[in-house]
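As a representative case, we now present a protein record of this kind.
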Amino acid sequence: MLGFLKEPVVVTAEINVNLVALTVMGLITRLWGLCYPRAVVFDEVYYGQFVSLYMKRIFFVDDSGPPFGHMLLALGGYLGGFDGNFLWNRIGAEYTMNVPVWSLRLLPALAGALCVPLAYQILVELHFSHRAALGAALLVLLENSLITQSRFMLLESILIFFILLAVLSYLKFYNLQRHRPFSGSWWFWLLLTGVACSCAVGVKYMGLFTYMLLLAIAGLHFWHMIGDQTLSNVSLLCHFVARALALILIPVVLYLSFFYVHLALLYRSGPHDQIMTSAFQASLEGGLARITQGQPLEVAYGSQITLRNVLGKPMQCWLHSHTNTYPIRYENGRGSSHQQQVTCYPFKDVNNWWIVKDPGMQQLVVSNPPRPVRHGHIVQLVHGITTRYLNTHDVAAPLSPHSQEVSCYIDYNISMPAQNLWRVEIVNRESDTDVWKTILSEVRFVHVNTSAVLKASGLIGASLPEWGYRQLEVVGEKLSKGYHQSMLWNVEEHRYGKSQEQKEREVELHSPTQMDISKNLSFMAKFTELQWKILTLKNEDTEHKYSSSALDWITMDTNIAYWLHPTSGAQIHLLGNVVTWASANAAALVYVCLSLWYLVRRRRRIYDIPEDSWQLWVSAGGVCGGGWAVNYLPFFLMEKTLFLYHYLPALTFQILLVPVVLQHLADHLCRSVLLKSMFSALIVAWFSSVYFVYCTFSPVTYGQPALSATELKGLRWKDSWNILIRKQ
């Protein structure tokens, strides 16, 4: 029974020494002196704020992309014991002792280091020689810009890591397809492709470019499979389902999970949640949730409410009125109704309170039992403090003459009767009998007499003059096609009115509510709102000293000063290896020219290279050249502030193309022994120059040692480079 113990248990393993050596060198170049400088470096001032908010569980919205990358940076802070207490207010600020600098920078550095062996393996899976793969890895290893970007609390190295991992995983899956479909390793690499793609998109939306490329390649490969007569219909269906599951369904689920974890971690109210809807804010701990806790859910006749405009642009605001009236005549000579002003006020105020009144009754209190207001009901809105009725009429609004003025009606005993009936339309209702709900219902108020819709003015950013206290304009929109968010309002604060007397009611308006109703949003509702805010929220793009255009990147006519020592000449710049960038451009140009030449010749039935070499050439171009194109060309269509680091994912793919072209030239153009020897010597000399440039610019890649003014001037190889030199 124990006979198997007669022989020793032997485990054998194959170790790729090249891969191990490259990984070690990648770790050394990225991790060496990682804590230096112990100061905020460039965009660390931006990402550090989000790390602190994660540590404190405070909700935020970042319009630059999804939350997965931010969570990875926060993980580094968590592992280092960071408490989130640091003021991220300026580049160059010295980190306090509670900031675990090494831990915060560790994950980007590890991701950058692992890009080196990934580059090696990608070339191997593309069926190029180990020498070509080693060359690709060494070019990535010695690329100064990739080193700089991976040594700080930034996201580009993490993005590039997941992009390369997705490409490698798909190539391994595709190579297994021919021999072992549906095997364990086949499933592993296919699923890892989908996971890596989702992670890349979750770090930055730039990852979507490579994801789309891989989907296109996978679609092309499956199209070729359809023509394979050896595969049955059932087998093709299984292949299709497997790819759809791994490359579409799993990435979508994983992407949703990033937001689920993000929202689970950030449950506290903060400064960013003000751009979210009232329902979203009420789901967060503190802030609005503290104010609205215990409010009645159903709005009834006699309810005291505040109405928040759903749009929230240019800022959140509430329907508001005060005792002041519109001027008899505006500065442009137009006249007004001289009625009480109604505005949208961006601060909480007692004058934001309104009472929902039944037009057929005089009482301003909630009956027992309450009579809820439903979709389609006619109401009057009475201003809580002045007791005047919300009104609109055929008088031009002060800033929007094409729209109607909205006011609180004052009876001047002239031929201008009150027009204060409004129909409640619940836009997000499930049925036509829905009850108007606090926080949850988005409502349009349609004026019964004129069919105008109550709207926060479309003049985004425009505010009333001094006579209107610079508050935002509210109008009656005559043409009300669709449901623009500026026409939608939701009840934010709500209580059941109990006091019929005005003085008692004013006291009541300042009092807290008593009832307890839960208003938690579902995850999908919160995800949908947050995702929409990320996609549509745009900060004002301002010209930055180091911003650049996409055309500047190819020839590296620009750089970015990341950090400058306050006293010495030590500094860190985002600058690439000039030889590598020039070689990558040359390789891309040679690839395009040779491809066109081969295509024309093949059209004439002239085959310069064997068919397997042609297929290898095309597949490498699809992955490396296609990766460069999809990660670079879209920037010409983007209206945003661009920086040199946006080019790094495209550059990485272009670098992979260099050894592809070199091996092709060596195999098919250098036919004699002499030519091969000369070509090898040129490659050695070329690679020596790559290493020389890496060493030359290392002081501004790592920030040490400090250079003198003369040495810094010697690094200004282009007049357009902004190398910082202190005046003596």
The first strand starts at residue 303 and ends at 309.
